Amino acid sequence: MKKIGLILFALVLSTGFIAAQNGKKAPKVTFEKSVHDFGKVAESAGSVSCEFVFKNIGTAPFIIQRVQASCGCTTPDYTNEPVLPGKEGKIKVTYSTTGRPGIINKDITVFSNVPDSIYRLNIKGEVIRK
Fold first, then answer.
1. Cα–Cα distance between 8 and 5 in angstroms, integer?
2. Cα separation of 12 and 9, whole Å?
3. What is the pLDDT of residues 81-122, one digit of tens each?
4. How far apart are CA 89 and CA 91, in angstroms?
């Protein structure tokens, strides 16, 4: 009888924890796109840019803590203030083409206040020599 009581108590307790997790406010974002293809770009262009737009579909403000590019030739700029639920933000990525003919395939990593989530964006294309 003690075992059945203990099992029922554990079941009720775990159900309470699950219900508490479901009521927790948390940010959640979706990106319109996670890959941008520049296509063929002239080296003489100097630089090319694109924007990754996201929307906070969660129930708490979304905060970007930092955005890291895979190399120094790629510069990210992003929304610094918290993005409220239902609102949009953006990450602008600029790639320097000068002295870099060839294939572009660069990753951008977004670190935020969303627990256990890292967002990965990608730019690609080809720089054509002068």
1. 5
2. 5
3. 999 999 999 999 999 999 999 999 999 999 999 988 999 999
4. 7
From residue 74, how far is each of 26, 50, 66, 100 by CA, in Å?
Answer: 30, 11, 14, 12
Quick check: 23 and 54 in contact, CB under 8 A?
A: no
Contact by Cβ (8 Å): 8, 16: no
- Distance from C-alpha of 9 to C-alpha of 110, rounded to nearest angstrom: 42
pTM: 0.79
Tell me phi and psi for residue 109, to 5 degrees: -110, 130
Which amino acid, 53? V
45, exposed or middle or buried, with CB in 10 Å at 0-12, 13-18, 19+? middle
| CA separation for the pair 117, 99 (Å, rounded) | 35
CA distance 55 to 59: 12
- CB contact set of 101 (below 8 Å; sequence gap of 6+): 43, 127, 128, 129
Are the beta carbons of 113 and 63 closer than 8 angstroms? yes
